[in-house]
Amino acid sequence: MGKLVYGSGNRSFDIEDRPLAHLRVVFMNKLRRGEPFMFHHAEPHVSCSIWIHPAVPIVFQFHGSRPPSMNREWIEVLMQEASSANGLRMLPEPAPGTVTADALG
Predict the structure, then answer these.
(1) What is the pLDDT of residue 21?
(2) What is the pLDDT of residue 96?
(3) Residue 42 CA to chain centroid, in angstroms?
């Protein structure tokens, strides 16, 4: 189980290493472009939305010993989600080859 720490350590989210690795790529790409976005995270009994901005420090902590393999289609779906009017929420990982260019808009 990894952890996403946002801000001065006052807000953190427990996220499995594999989804966290994919979120890291999305955050990095959006913020490198200067594109802040809304991130929604749901846990049992609590839901939170935070504005992700390049001026706020973000730490991605991984607890696994090996980096997870990456699913490019999942990254593309998450990037599209982050660019939507509703913001980024963690979507389930699509099976490889199931996401078409039409589905990505």
Answers:
(1) 96
(2) 77
(3) 12
Distance between CA 37 and CA 56 in Å, rounded? 12
Beta strand 2-6 with 46-52 is unpaired
Q: What's 38's DSSP letter? A: E
pLDDT at 24 over 60: yes
As a whole number of angstroms, the distance between CA 30 and CA 81 comes to 11
Tokens of 25: 């790529």
Which tokens hold the place of 1?
């189980």
DSSP 59-93: EEE--SSSPPP--HHHHHHHHHHHTSTT-EE-PPP
Q: Summarize pLDDT for 75-92 with one digit per residue, the tens.
A: 999 999 999 999 999 999
CA dist 76 and 80 (Å) reads 6
Which H helix or E strand runs over 29?
A: helix 17-32
